[in-house]
Design a protein that fits this description.
45% helix, 3-stranded antiparallel beta sheet, 16 helices, 415 residues, single chain
Length: 415
């Protein structure tokens, strides 16, 4: 049965699609593709029309893409960013030589948040094995994975040169950066659309209902009733109703005088309690969707749950949620781009999540002063963190207090 289904749902060319087990295939591909085929049901492609979900994805992907990435050696007492390391230039400036690092990481995170998995192919130097380029692989081109002799292999469809056809490649997982959502089996990330399908479906239906309501505002919430019971009148009545709909329905005709067909009257309708709650419950579903993505509600336009007193607390929680994502990226990059010898030698990747919260100048100055007094940071590290020119050694050794003491001693001697 599953072989026939796999052969039917091909992407992008026909072929077997594997996700390790039949259960994984059913949960991640079969159910999402077969659910919601009616025009009145939410389909996976409709997530682009759910503004709350897309706002969450936009906030998270844009926020992640602006976190500075660094390479350090824990054995270096100066804790200096290793700008000369080729992997720093690869990760920071342009991983694929076509787009900037910011655009690259934004696209990867965008795919991960929508599809549950994002991939980047590692192109290596054939002689040294060092990574020389990272190439984004759209999630729909990775049809699954198989485990053979303790190694994971991905099935990837790549476009042929000067052709619309695709060829199937089996690539070792060590040559693919795989960033995933929460996972049941440790390999394949869950589909976020399936996890919050109920909230997404209600939000989508609510927005469509409101849109159609205003599209037909000349008739709702009202009905047109004929006062002539003669059945022979039905045909001209239907024609008059069609003309009424053509001339008066839609937002562009709102407020116009309506000329009713002969022998008809309008009867007003009211929304019942269930319909009214359905329309006004948008903020609750919006809060649930943002809660799934761990985005503060005020960032998606729900301000009822955000007060000035807890705004800083929400920002700290948002930073904490981003730290979880950063740690996943960090471990995947270190595992695939660094050798075990380099990791044992102290090399590691760091994302500066402190950049997520911008402080006012007075608070920032107080923070740096305290850190320098404790010996945690020096002038060079503070300058690097703020993007300022590095101070000269003489400037770092001489402080205003030292100069004041020297002058006062000279004045005493002169006296």
């Amino acid at each position: 049965m599953f072989e026939k289904i796999r052969d039917f749902f091909w992407a992008p060319e026909k072929g077997n699609v594997y996700l390790g087990t039949d259960k994984a295939f059913e949960d991640n591909i079969l159910i999402p593709l077969t659910s919601g085929q009616s025009k009145n049901k939410f389909q996976n492609s409709d997530i682009d029309k759910v503004s709350v979900a897309m706002t969450c994805v936009k906030v998270l992907s844009n926020t992640f893409s602006r976190i500075p990435i660094r390479i350090f050696n824990e054995n270096d007492p100066t804790n200096t960013n290793l700008r000369s390391d080729p992997r720093y230039k690869l990760l920071y400036y342009s991983p694929d030589g076509l787009i900037t690092g910011q655009q690259f990481w934004l696209a990867l995170e965008f795919n991960r948040l929508l599809k549950g998995n994002s991939f980047a192919r590692i192109r290596r130097n054939t002689n040294t094995g060092q990574a020389i380029m990272l190439e984004i692989i759209p999630s729909n081109r990775v049809s699954g994975y198989k485990t053979v002799r303790g190694q994971h292999y991905y099935t990837i469809f790549t476009p042929k040169v000067d052709s619309k056809e695709y060829k199937k490649e089996v690539v070792n997982s060590q040559d693919v950066l795989h960033f995933r959502m929460d996972t049941r089996d440790g390999v394949w990330g869950m589909n976020p659309i399936e996890a919050i399908r109920l909230q997404l479906s209600k939000t989508w239906k609510r927005d469509v209902t409101e849109d159609v309501y205003f599209e037909n505002n000349a008739f709702s919430p009202a009905v047109v009733k004929t006062t002539v019971p003669d059945a022979a009148f039905q045909k001209p009545f239907n024609e008059a109703m069609q003309q009424l709909k053509t001339m008066h329905a839609g937002p562009s005709n709102a407020g116009d005088w309506i000329k009713m067909p002969p022998f008809t009257e309008i009867q007003q309708l009211t929304l019942n309690s269930v319909d009214e709650k359905f329309i006004t419950s948008s903020k609750f579903d919006a809060a649930r969707i943002s809660g799934f993505y761990r985005v503060p509600p005020y960032m998606v336009g729900v301000y009822e749950y955000s007060k000035y007193s807890n705004l800083e607390h929400e920002q700290q929680n948002f930073k904490s949620s981003m730290s979880d994502v950063v740690f996943m990226y960090k471990r995947e990059i270190e595992w695939k781009l660094f050798s075990q010898i380099e990791l044992d030698g102290g090399l590691y990747v760091s994302f500066d999540t402190n950049k997520l919260i911008d402080l006012d100048m007075a608070t920032k100055l107080n923070y740096y002063t305290t850190m320098k007094t404790l010996g945690v940071l020096d002038s060079a590290q503070i300058a690097e963190a703020e993007g300022l020119p590095q101070p000269s050694p003489q400037t770092m050794d001489d402080s205003p207090d030292d100069n004041m003491d020297d002058n006062s001693d000279d004045n005493t001697d002169n006296e």
